[in-house]
Amino acid sequence: MNEHRRDLTQEERASVERQIQDPAQPLAQRAALRLKLFLEHEQIVKHPGERIYAWRTIRSFPDIYAPGEREKLTAGRYVHEQGRVCNISSNWEGVLNGGLLPRREKTTPEGRTAIDAVIAYADRYEDEALSRAIRCGAKGYLEALNMFRILHFALWASNVYHNTVGRFDQYMEPFLKADREKGLTYDEALSLTEEFFLSFNRDSDLYIGMQQGDNGQSLMLGGCDRDGKSAVNPLTEICLKASLHNRRIDPKINLRVDKNTPLELYELGTQLTRQGLGFPQYANDDVIIPALVDMGYALEDARNYVVAACWEFIIPGVAMDIPNIGAVSLAGVVAGVIRDELASCKAYEELEAKVRGAIAADAENTCHGLAPLFLEPAPYQTVLMSDVTHDVSEGAKYNNYGFHGTGFATAVDQLAAVKRYVFDERTVTPQTLKEALDSDFEQNPGLGRMLREDAPKLGRDEECVPIADRLLENFADALSPLRNERGGRVRPGTGSAMYYLWHSKNLGATADGRRAGEPLSANFSPSLTLRDAGPLSVISAMARPGLKRVMNGGPLTLELHDTVFKHPEGVTKVAQLVKAYIAMGGHQLQLNAVSREQMLDAQQHPDAHRNLIVRVWGWSGHFVQLDKGYQDQIIQRVSYNA
Amino acid sequence: MTKGIVFDIEEFAVYDGPGIRSVIFLKGCPLRCAWCHNPEGFIKAPQRLKSRDLCVQCGACIAACPLGCGWEAGEKCVACGECVKACPRGALRIAGREMTSGEAAARILKNAQALKLSGGGVTFSGGEALMQPDFVVETRGLLSGLHAAIETSGYADAAVFERVVKAMDLVMMDVKLADGAAHKTWTGADNRLILQNLARLIEMGIPFRARVPLIPGVNDTRENLTATARLLEGAKALERVELLGYNRAAGAKYGQLGLTYAPGFPEDQAPNRYTEPFIERGMEVVTL
Q1: Which of A107, A641, B43, B63 is deepest in the core (most CB within 10 A)?
Q2: Number of A:B CB contacts under 8 A?
Q3: How many CB atoms lie under 10 A from the CB of residue A9?
Q4: Does B112 touch chain A (CB under 8 A)?
Q5: Peptide bond into A377 cis (omega under 30)
Q6: pLDDT tens for each residue of A236-278
Q7: B3-45+99-287 and B47-95: same fold?
């Protein structure tokens, strides 16, 4: 696909390293020089007929640290992931409209170096419109797209990562509108958008996060404007259609909705879900905007929110939040309290009080461990922020952290089981439970089965709901007094990222009947042991008022078999399901059309897919309970549908 | 309160009426359609189902059985569920649970908000819901304010049929085969009652949808579909005709019940989807 890819020669590499790895020079200066050299080494590639520029031709470029230098710099400091600025959203609107030159006057000397390097790179395309745009701002749609492409390309080259796309339909619509008035047709606009979206996939093999595809190229559509009015515009629809036609994983589509969003927009979104790529992800303005305001964001900024790489809510241009810097294993904290302190609790309320204390202690401990933070300077990312006068790695208008709360449902289910059997019914003693848990239920399989199958589960049983509400409040209360070294707050969230696997591996058997090492559910989803509950029970159980405080982000995930989508009527009804979750006050939702791959995996590892529901015909069944022949048949059928 | 035997409640059904439907599947059916995909709906009594793939033959179920049943739950089995609790693999389940109309209604009402938001409601299905008319009517009565529909073969006494469909906002009635002899061959029963009830339904003017499960080589002929269209001609309250595709996974649950699925028609063959007989007569027809 990209025949121009190459590695630097040994000589080139040595020369670059000599220039940018001089410990006598400040890091910021070296970072800017690195970007300049990187872009100078990049070859300009233009294919015939191609309207969107830029292909990565250099596979990798040296870092700015001399051998051993980074270890010295980071000794005694907390390094988040790669130790670089990531997961923030640029002020695309400001840069696309004003160009880089006005920012040149205000920014740091290193920022100026970066600006000059990016302009020089753009000029090498010998496209007058682009050269003008990158200096003074874009006028039309194509030049704005190419300007974005160059700016974003350079962002990756500048060694920051998870470079989000932000509110694309908002900042691009004026350019599109100008061109539409000059005669650009709808179909041309769509085709241009498709080509532009495809460009996100050109180099994505080089942009690896925790997993291939985890590259943060997320964009946010819809939502409201500065005055709170619906901001859905013609480009919103064009973007959804372009993504539908492209069927590629980048850019990842997010859609802001609220109680007034018309069903048609959900239907367009559902068409996309049907493709099985796992997006769009929906975010509910009615929950998130007030939540951001309560967390201290200005209303105007809150109304402009986007998502970071995955689901964390951040503000373009003004936030240097690190929304995924830590996590509290809610499931683990609850398990620890049950294991160590259940016997000493006379009433259930005492147990919850101990959980509250343990979450607070865990969070405080994690928060202390995060200072002092090490972050590589990011002069070019600085240029793309709203305030460009000091390096963004040192902070911005908002400097909040976010902690995921992992295993939420498993935490609730453990508490609910203990409440029912140990305190309310008094049919299980703390000692019996402890022995069963310690032996991973080997000593007491009957109790294990009862806890797993009969005990109350969040998503099915009402008695879990008040426990869930209190756990959300406790989590929010625990984080509320914490301040990071930048004076920012710590936002509690419902995401899990990769933590749900990390946190589950070392977690022994839990009081909800989950066996040692069994995975926790991802994000804000019911536990994997949930049975006999459909999507309606799940959405109403998970739409909790406490999400206005536990607001860092993290979606409820629903998996629907793709036959649900086969007829347009099914698409409409899935759209209605999403609309219902939003109307009930759910914060964020992601749907999966169940894929053939998942079913193949379910055949190999049935226990990992106990909840996989397939619609076989007029009925739905648990996939793993079907005889193999029928499983094979359904797998075959899905491959026809795909 | 009247009790019913329910073998499943599906919360999120998308092809069983308008909007999002929660479907109550009632156990017991007077017909034995060769293509039936819900064989646990045949008899009214609760039954045990076993997944052969999950079973590792550990014997825990046999040890737990108070009646001394063996590997396959035979005639002695009363579906008490002791084996289900004992099974460490979760390979067993009981289809058929006795519940009161109040319990069934509560289960549906739990999600009333989502159902209403989507313009959906409850659908009574089976088996054959008309075999438990008191339960259906009583449950429906407890769900006032919610749209209610029934999926039925129409095989019941006239009085029962009338009483139940009157309680519904929408009737989805199968017209499987227009020819009586063929109907008897493929469903085990004559269609005289069904056709009388269809005429009655048309007369009553309750909104309804006619449904034809298209079975290859059985009823997917132009003759049968034309005859079906004639039966529906002029029905003012007919919303639309729904042609349901046959799915080869229909036999999936027979093995779990210790039954053999022997459809006796070419199930690999795609059925004909003649829509013209309906369209020509001014009816809306959808293939689901």
Answers
A1: A107
A2: 119
A3: 9
A4: no
A5: no
A6: 999 999 999 998 878 999 999 999 999 999 999 999 988 767 7
A7: no
Does B117 reach chain A within 8 Å, measured CB to CB? yes
- The C-alpha angle with vertex A636 and arms to A633 and A641, in degrees rounded to 5, equals 125
* Interchain contact, B253 vs A577, CB within 8 Å: no
Q: What is the 3-state secondary structure (H, E, C) of chain B?
A: CCEEEEEEEEEEECCCCCCCEEEEEECCCCCCCCCCCCHHHCCCCCEEEECCCCCCCCCHHHHHCCCCCCCCCCCCCCCCCHHHHHCCCCCEEEECEEEEHHHHHHHHHCCHHHHHHCCCEEEEEECCHHHCHHHHHHHHHCCCCCEEEEEECCCCCHHHHHHHHHCCCEEEEECCCCCHHHHHHHHCCCCHHHHHHHHHHHHHCCCEEEEEEECCCCCCCHHHHHHHHHHHCCCCCEEEEEEEECCHHHHHHCHHHCCCCCCCCCCCCCCCCCCHHHHCCCCCEEEC
Question: Which pLDDT band holds residue B47 (cuts at 50, 70, 90)?
Answer: very high
Structure tokens at B134: 């008191």
Does the distance separating the beta carbons of A573 and B19 come in below 8 Å?
Answer: yes
On whether the CB atoms of residues A589 and A281 are closer than 8 A, the answer is yes
Nearest by CB: A540 against B85, B93, B111? B111
Q: Where are the domains of chain B?
A: 3-45+99-287, 47-95
Q: What integer pLDDT is reported at residue A614 of this predicted model?
A: 64
| CA–CA separation, A474 and A323 (whole Å) | 19
Global confidence as pTM: 0.92
| Whole-number pLDDT of residue A641 | 30
Residue A47 CA, distance from chain mean position: 33
Beta carbons of B11 and A619 less than 8 Å apart: no
| Residue A380: closest CA among A53, A42, A80, A119 | A119
Section A38-46 average pLDDT = 97
Q: Is B58 on the interface with A (CB under 8 A)?
A: no
CA distance A386 to A317: 5
Joined together, the tokens standing for residue A375 give 């972050």
Is the model's pLDDT at B90 over the cut of 90? no
Query: What would the pLDDT profile of A70-111 be if each residue is shown by its tens digit?
Result: 999 999 999 999 999 999 999 999 999 999 999 999 999 999
The answer, for B52 touching chain A at a CB cutoff of 8 Å, is: yes
Superfamily of domain B3-45+99-287: Aldolase class I (3.20.20.70)
ipTM (interface pTM): 0.91
* Any B CB within 8 A of A575 CB: no
Chain A CB contacts of B41 below 8 Å: none
Structure tokens at A594: 């169940």
Mutate which: B118, B244, B268, vs A, most A CBs within 10 A: B118
Confidence of residue A639 (pLDDT cuts 50, 70, 90): very low
Selecting from A536, A579, A583 the residue whose C-beta is nearest the C-beta of B111 gives A536
Name residue B258's amino acid: G
Domain B47-95 classification at class level = alpha beta
Q: How far is B249 from chain A (nearest CA, A)?
A: 6
Q: What mean pLDDT, rounded, does chain A reach?
A: 92
For residue B118, give the nearest of A567, A580, A625 by CB distance. Answer: A580
